[in-house]
What does this fold into?
Amino acid sequence: MTAALKIPASIDMSAYWLPYTPNRYFHQHPKVMQSAKGAYYYDDHGRKLFDGLSGLWCSPLGHADPRIGAAIAKQYETMDYCPAFQMASEATFTLASRIVKMAPKGLDKVFFTNSGSEAVDTALKIAIGYHRVMGNASRIRMIGRDRSYHGVGIGGISVGGMVANRKMFASMMMSGVDHLPHTYNLSQMAFSRGQPTWGAHLADELEKIVALHDANTIAAVILEPVQGSTGVLVPPDGYLQKIREICTKHGILLIFDEVITGFGRLGANFGADRFGVTPDMITFAKAITNGVIPMGGVLVRGDIYDAIMGAGGQEQMIEFFHGYTYSGHPIPTAAAHAVLDIFESDDLINRARALEPVISDAYSRAKRAINTEKYALALRWTALDIENQSVAGLLEMNRAEDLDGFKKALRKNYAPMQNVVMADVEGNISYQAAGMAPKRILHQGLYGVAPALGWEKQYDWTGYVPFEQLPASNNPEQGWIATANQPIIASNDPNPLTADWDLPTRYDRIVDLIQAKSQHDFNSMKTMQGDTLSLGAKPLLELFKASIPNHKLGPQALEVSKDFDGDMRVDSAAALIFNAWADQLTRNLFSRLSYLFTENYGARNFRSPLILQLANPNSPWCDNPETAKVETCAESSNEAYAKALDELSSRYGNEPSKWSWGKGHVAISEHRPLSKVPLLGSFFNLEAPFPGDSFTVNVGRLELLQAGNPFETKQAPSLRTVYDLSDLEKSVFIYQSGQSGWVQSKLYRNMLPLWAKNEYLPLQMKPENINRQLELTTKQK
It folds into this structure.
């Protein structure tokens, strides 16, 4: 048992009756806070306590934000109080207008209160008053929900569904109140993500209540979009929509109590926005002032206000006899303006939505990166933005008639980001990086490569890079454009797109081939697409050829490889030996990284860090940490060579001269999903020996630790085309599978051999010879 903390002798606690607190117990175990800053409280024992509940759901900006304090101080000096009756401050009018702009359409009046409890009682009064002036004075019944919390006013506890809040005050509560069942069912909702799929039918209970009491006696239904105080109960999918439909059908007002959910807590201005349901009134409080000073209010449908105004008699008469001394008080009004300013300037509501998709609870490997008992991994991806128009942009690209029209369509591409090259028949060429790129602070952050600290502003997106600031090139002086996932921006570019560029080997080889001839033609373009010289191998060749493997096949392998220049031809035995050696050497150096290596080697080739470390013959990464001896890079290379020969001989026999790169480097086109089905996979998949490697123009990225055969490739150029812009009928193409998707068709794999050998088929709209013709005619009715 934890020992009780001593009551600080300097504090007399006898006078204060604490709300919602076991006072007797508290006096034995006091919690006295001394200060608050950011997301933490500091108590009188010097402890730093994380504010996990955001105050009482009311401090989303944390504590002691100086911008709010400055606004309050300025207002105090200007006007500390203004009576709420018969007059108001200018700032109160502008605050109401700002809140209306944030609210769902149609809720365009604001009645200010001092708390959520007052807001609820006010909304109930408005509902009764509205029906009365509309000639429906019999509509006095209110419908709440079990387990709901609507404050502690008499109206609030009457419609609320928390027993302890009601039983002591039963004699005072409103009559004519009924309750819907709550929506929580553990057996049906366990392990559900997002909105539960079970439970929408519970909305039908409202029809039963209507049938029991008669719709003409019911004034309003009041619900929390997400029930907060009873355990954060998310509404079942479709539940709120059904409630709205039933209320509309029977002329019953729908009130959303958004004292907790209002102002961004659900990643939207209000819960009504998040769930796509517009009520007739919304109550709010808490976050509107960040809990700094009490304030609340009710958003009301405009026609409700108009009806009450219209029944108010002469213009000098008060239409609605209700209000509070401190309604729209200038000081909390100033605080509210400051809070809304911060929401806007820091884009906090969108940020809350962006941090929402928690993936760590479904991603076991997250435990290796973070303490999942303390933190969560959240994902934000541009493709998930509701503004994503990529599909529309793709359609417009197909209709574009010139480069300007094509670029206009590219503006709608959200994700994934693309390197797009364009040309027209007039000889213009252009490049455009297309996609929504988050704006990040240069040199401050990880640029999306690894999880960042979500509470540190330096890692936040600060908007999107304008299309005009994305990398682009139009008719460059050199007369050509090349792109192969190499870095396309300078290291000091103010808009860092990523830190995860590919090695520029393919780009550099393309440039070499372009510059090797003064003029290119159709055939040189095809040759370039099939090029298999690996500039990713070049920096390693000296060490490879100098290696002396302690293996019986060593002399034969060295003889076969002595003239290897990095050309990854499909018939090259040296290419196979080199790649097996490079694979084993990479494992020698980086296996010490444990799962960071084993789970990523394949998705990442580790070639850049390998080249970097081997530049130092005595790099500590070359040393085997499991031996007493300190190995050099040459010794690690010798060992890797021997391991490579062990592996190759076990796979392909003991005659290195009969080995070939194509035996190991097999291109596999997987059928989705049947490739995962035993026996069927080999029947539906397509396989062919393939040249190149991860660094050649004709790329075939190695799977490495991602597959049983480390040399196989599942990432290669699925489509190759050469367009002749002087005569498009002379264009050619090739695809890696076939013309038919039916596995038993002879055309299922008919293009595969051509593709593997870098051969092409005509791409014609008007072929000279037509063997078959299919005509489609509309059926006459």
In short: The CA atoms of residues 485 and 596 lie 23 Å apart.
